[in-house]
Amino acid sequence: MNNIVWSNKVDEILSNGISLKPIGVKNWALPQEEAIQALSQFIDLQIPILGGDVCEFVSGTIQYNYDNWYCDRLPNESHLDFVNRSIRKAREYIEHYNISEPNKIFFAFVPEV
């Protein structure tokens, strides 16, 4: 799959979320359940997740709250192994993130494109 098609597929998956354009970022942030569902789509497309950021609504504006995670490819790690490990790490982070107000917390992914 070429990078343009891959990038379009990533945009399709993420664009269901909250746009981060108001803060100058061409990305979207998804609520917890949708973020976990998006990870299933990334694994189907074999797109690794390099990391992600947690965003929240503060006074009606989406912004980063500076919580994040990352996943680097290991030396000699196959692409498929990296995809599986990076998505597993993202899923664990999102599932275990302490969310006191679900309608305020969102997750933004950094997929490898």
From TrEMBL:
Residues 19-110 form the Immunity protein domain. The gene is imm40. InterPro entries: Imm40. It comes from the Bacteria. It holds the Pfam family Imm40. This is Imm40 family immunity protein.
